[in-house]
Amino acid sequence: GGGGMASPGHRDAPELPDFGLLKRLARDQLVYLLEQLPGKKDLFIEADLMSPLDRIANVSLLKQHEVDKLYRVEAKPARSSSDQLCFLVRPRIRSVKFVADIVNADKVAGRTRKYKIIFSPQKFYTCERILEEEGIYGDVTWDEWSFYLLPLDDDIISMELPEFFRDYFLEGNQCWISTVSQALQLMSSLFGPFTRTYGIGRCAKMVHEIWREIVEESEGDSLGRKPEIGQVFLMDRGVCVGVLEGSWTLAESLSPSL
After folding, report:
1. How many CB atoms lie within 10 A of CB 72?
2. Could you give the CA distance from residue 28 to residue 32 in angstroms, rounded to a whole number?
3. Among 92-101, 105-114, 185-194, 249-258, which is the least confidently predicted range?
4. DSSP string covering 151-210, please?
5. Which residues contact 40 (CB under 8 A, 6 or more apart)?
6. What span, in angstroms and rounded, lies between the C-alpha atoms of 10 and 123?
7. In b/e form, how buried is each residue of 128-150, taking b as 16+ CB within 10 angstroms?
8. pLDDT in tens, 190-234
């Protein structure tokens, strides 16, 4: 930064990792997924994926990969005349039902076209169950866009999961815990290995345990590299930051023997 008011000690601060890498990876993966449906296609996008998508890929990039028209996933589906429909959605029951309504309406009309669902950031088991219940399991192909982390600024990254709080803390639904663990693993493989992990709260502990399992399965990803992120703090929402007794400290230095 060019500010003249920076404190003297600030100059020694290590450079921030290049979080732009997260955007580039997400963009490359999205392009790869769109290319799995070659030819012209219409893309239906869930409303709360619009803004993150906008920061990752512009309309011209989508057009380059033969996306013809863009539609929003909403209560009254737009009438698309394309022979190939792609749906970029959250792993929600209502989103899968939205796709099912279109596929089943086509069946009634005797219309044949290709359908691809891209779940972001991942697909849950419930999604498959709904596909089966709606009778369209064999009619669609699906994939996952593992888009876990969106850099909003040089030092701010968002998971863009507005429903996490409601689902976990209010309804006790733990489905997103593995998503957070996957995001942690992505950070670790790109900018780690983390030297220490600290946490407070039950949710933080579960995230850490699942993340450690993922690390053990994918051993060797970031071994032998100088970590760009040294320490990680996981805190449950609602935990008073002033009171850190009862916090747990984990993973002394991650060594190759782990």
Report:
1. 12
2. 6
3. 249-258
4. EEETTEEE---TTHIIIIIIT---TTHHHHHHHHHHHHHHH---SEEEEESHHHHHHHHH
5. 66, 68, 82, 83, 84
6. 43
7. eebbeebebeebbebbebbbbbb
8. 987 888 889 888 899 999 999 999 988 876 655 567 788 888 889
Angle at CA of residue 179, ends 163 and 74, nearest 5°: 45
pTM over 0.85: no
**CA pair distance 175, 195, nearest whole angstrom:** 28
pLDDT for 78 equals 74
Calculate the alpha carbon distances from 109 to 60, 75, 104, 213, 233 in Å.
33, 20, 9, 48, 54
Rounded distance between C-alpha atoms, residue 241 and residue 243, angstroms: 5
User: What pLDDT shows up at residue 123?
Assistant: 92
SS3 117: strand
Examine residue 38 and say whether the peptide bond preceding it is cis (omega within 30 degrees of 0): no
Q: What is the mean pLDDT of residues 74-96?
A: 89
Peptide bond into 121 cis (omega under 30): yes
